[in-house]
Write a structure and sequence with these properties.
about 0% strand, mainly alpha, about 70 residues
């Protein structure tokens, strides 16, 4: 489906999509930087990998109600 929009509106929408895409990419890069930083320490790496295994297997997972915190 094509929309017949004036050029300025199309450019505004396109610029919005570009902005949102850059923001999402920046957030993903920041998450990877944090993970890489935490994985530098052998002790942290072991804890993170163990936690990932626990999550995948369902071990040590507890539900919490936010009102209890």
């Amino acid at each position: 489906m094509k929309l017949a929009l004036p050029l300025r509106k199309r450019q505004s929408i396109f610029n919005l999509f570009k902005f949102l895409n850059r923001r999402q990419t920046a957030m993903a890069d920041q998450e990877m930087d944090t993970t890489a930083y935490l994985m530098k320490s052998p002790a942290n790496k072991a804890r993170l990998l163990e936690a990932m295994k626990d999550i995948e297997s369902g071990n040590h997972i507890f539900s919490r109600d936010l009102t209890d915190l």
